[in-house]
UniProtKB/TrEMBL annotation:
Classification via Pfam families: Peptidase_M14
Peptidase M14 domain: residues covered: 30-307
GO function term, MF aspect, one: metallocarboxypeptidase activity
UniProt similarity note: Belongs to the peptidase M14 family.
Protein name: Peptidase M14 domain-containing protein
Transmembrane portions of the chain: none
PROSITE patterns: PEPTIDASE_M14 (PS52035)
Source species, domain of life: Bacteria
Gene Ontology BP terms: proteolysis
SUPFAM superfamilies in the cross-refs: Zn-dependent exopeptidases (SSF53187)
Length: 307
């Protein structure tokens, strides 16, 4: 039987006000360094890529610059590939998988694509290991005009400024045990809803677009990743995180309707990856490798389609 859960902040059934949000923020702590673990790795790529800053978070503009990586010799005749990581800052392999792709694979695809990588969209969330920003806003539900999320708003502005239309967008995420232990209970408490636990899928899966599912593209990603780590099976109801499985390891969401990062462009090929870092069957290195395999599998497929 699934358990109900009352979050320690707020009154059950009552949405949070400013007092509860301040109480939540007060209990967050810095657990790791964006500058040391992320910025330093981005800067190490400056000999091979064009690095640029596309904004800074007002929480601390010096500490939280928003940085991106571009392949050199940008050519408006080539398709644009967008790779995003750390939209949810706590999802570690999303950040470090994007950085690993930049360091080891991106140059191999630069003859066919213009590639731009935003490896850590939510650096405050990275440091405190949280899904939200300091205002209890989920950046990955905030990709719309007049967004309440600085993280989302800055990324959208940067992408809109690119020379060329985005053909491929790969958004790197994780599904963790803390989704059920902390983040979903916090969300339901914030919104005044009752939390009822769900399961966490053991393995990798992708989220496609209900309006543009591209099943062969998603399958190519799954087939690439299965060489690195295991694919999440459906639950007893044939679902992954409450959504019907469309094919092995693939579910679909209405990305634009939910204001998700992967719905912010009109790309032909889009996917959200989901790695499970808490599995006994996966190491941190495998999680990063899985993200890289997802990107390369996606790009290899698109190259085949372009001919």
């Amino acid at each position: 039987m699934k358990r109900e859960h009352n979050y320690p902040i707020g009154t059950p059934g009552k949405p949070w006000g400013d007092e509860e949000k301040a109480q939540w923020l007060a209990q967050t702590t810095i657990k790791r360094s964006y500058q040391q673990e992320v910025v330093s790795k981005i800067q190490a790529l400056e000999t091979d890529f064009d690095l640029f800053q596309y904004g800074a978070l007002s929480y601390d503009v010096d500490k939280y610059p928003l940085l991106a990586i571009k392949t050199r010799n940008w050519d408006s005749s080539k398709p644009v590939v967008l790779v995003t990581g750390g939209v949810h800052g706590y999802e570690t392999s999303g950040v470090h998988g994007a950085l690993q792709f930049a360091a080891t694979k991106a140059a191999q695809y630069s003859d066919r694509f213009n590639i731009v990588i935003a490896p850590c969209v939510s650096p405050w969330g990275y440091e405190v290991i949280n899904r939200w920003n300091p205002n209890t806003v989920d950046p990955n539900r905030s990709f719309f005009a007049d967004s309440p999320s600085e993280e989302a708003a800055n990324l959208m502005k940067m992408v809109a400024s690119l020379d060329g239309e985005v053909l491929v967008h790969i958004d790197l995420h994780e599904t963790t045990d803390t989704d059920e232990l902390e983040f979903r209970p916090a969300r339901e408490a914030r919104d005044g809803n009752l939390y009822i636990e769900d399961g966490v899928p053991d393995g990798f899966y992708t989220v496609g677009d209900t309006e543009n599912p591209q099943p062969a593209f998603q399958k190519a990603i799954i087939d690439s990743v299965r060489k690195v780590t295991h694919i999440a099976p459906p639950d007893a109801d044939g679902n992954i995180i409450g959504s019907p499985v469309q094919q092995e390891g693939v579910i679909n969401y209405p990305l634009k309707a939910l204001s998700l990062c992967n719905g912010m462009t009109d790309c032909t090929y889009g996917t959200t990856t989901e790695v499970y870092p808490d599995s006994d069957r996966a190491t941190p290195a495998q999680c990063n490798d899985a993200q890289v395999a997802a990107i390369t599998g996606a790009l290899d497929y698109v190259i085949e389609q372009l001919g």
